[in-house]
Design goal:
Elements (H helix, E strand, L loop, with lengths): L13 H16 L12 E6 L5 H12 L3 E5 L13 H8 L5 E6 L4 H7 L5 E6 L5 H15 L6 E5 L6 H10 L6 E5 L8 H11 L3 E4 L11 E4 L10 H7 L7 H4 L7 E3 L20 H20 L8
Parallel strand pairs: 1-2, 1-3, 3-4, 5-6, 5-8, 6-7, 8-9
Bound molecules: N-carbamoyl-L-aspartate.
N-carbamoyl-L-aspartate binds next to helix 2 and helix 6.
Length: 311
């Protein structure tokens, strides 16, 4: 069986990632050309963990391509509540849909499903591990707002330990000759050691770790904010102690470059003050909108739909 899945960001080469970005840009410019291209195709969204943007942008993407969607957004309403394993579920769904996006609290669950699946599986977030389609959204956003992905100085701020969006984006950006990574986090929520080591040993990237935003905000091109994730903590007291570690407000962005962009995978809790939303450098809502186009491009790629003739 030679079905293509997207489980880890490394499942696509840089060339394939660039092709996806190109297709997403074509779709954004001429959405009409794509509106029936997936007629008769079905996407299943199997969400075992809460989601707003990822699930709905996948569904919007498939509907905008003329396809259909089915699935569940609350595993308690599916046979999971009767004890069914993901392995059994996916073998059944394989005959109901043409591809499936799976979000699961357990690391590795989408990968396990892909081993038993006849249809392409997309990892829509597995625990604190990976979130490759948020990475596609982030890459497309950086490309659209900055004109290129390499040569950027990017700072990640917040929960770098459990933040799956951070893990997947860093794994991808290191393949793009990024200028420098700056990691801003409390000591308890630093980037996992294996990932940090990989960056240094395999990619020889320039890496700086700091504990405040103020000391670096004036020199960065991209500030990637993240939420402190309550659901990943084992104890409420630790979450309460760390939840307001970083709050980006107007006084801090006064120190930033005029063309710095502020990204966030969302949802935001406290880490960006609402007053920042008005600043032209705050592009997180536009970032969420780019997620639809890149997911349209991904669906076309995994279904093997050739759309090169459209451009
Ligand atoms: C992120 C996630 O689910 O990992 N959200 C998203 O998919 N856009 C980030 C988060 O939940 O904090």
């Amino acid at each position: 069986m030679n079905t293509k899945h997207l489980i880890h960001p490394e499942d696509f080469t840089v060339q394939e990632l660039n092709q996806l970005i190109q297709i997403a840009q074509n779709i954004l410019e001429d959405p009409q050309d794509y509106k029936n291209i997936c007629k008769d195709k079905i996407l299943a969204t199997l969400f075992y963990e809460p989601s707003t943007r990822t699930r709905l942008s996948f569904e919007s993407a498939m509907l905008r391509l003329g396809g259909n969607v089915l699935g569940f957004s609350d595993a308690s309403t599916s046979s999971v509540s009767k004890g069914e394993s993901i392995v059994d579920t996916i073998q059944v769904i394989s005959s109901y849909a043409d591809l499936a996006a799976i979000r699961h609290p357990k690391e590795g669950a989408p990968k396990l499903a892909s081993k038993y699946s006849k249809i392409p599986i997309i990892n829509a977030g597995d625990g604190g591990h990976e979130h490759p389609t948020q990475t596609l959204t982030d890459l497309f956003t950086i490309y659209m707002k900055k004109g290129n992905i390499k040569d950027q100085k990017i700072a990640f701020c917040g929960d770098l330990k459990f933040g799956r969006t951070v893990h997947s984006l860093i794994r991808t950006l290191c393949r793009y000759n990024i200028k420098e990574f700056i990691l801003i986090s409390p000591d308890e929520l630093t980037l996992p050691y294996e990932l940090k080591n990989k960056l240094i040993e395999e990619y020889d990237v320039k890496l700086q770790e700091v504990s405040t935003m103020e000391e670096v905000i004036g020199e960065i091109d991209i500030l990637y904010m993240t939420r402190i994730q309550k659901e990943r903590f084992f104890n409420e007291a630790d979450y309460e102690r760390l939840k307001n570690s970083y709050i980006l407000d107007s006084s801090k962005i006064k120190l930033a470059k005029d063309d710095m962009i502020i990204m966030h995978p969302l949802p935001r809790v406290n880490e960006i003050s609402y007053e920042v939303d008005k600043d032209p450098r705050a592009i997180y809502f536009e970032q969420a909108s780019f997620g639809v186009y890149i997911r349209m491009a991904l669906i076309l790629k995994l279904l093997g739909v050739d759309c090169t003739c459209l451009k």
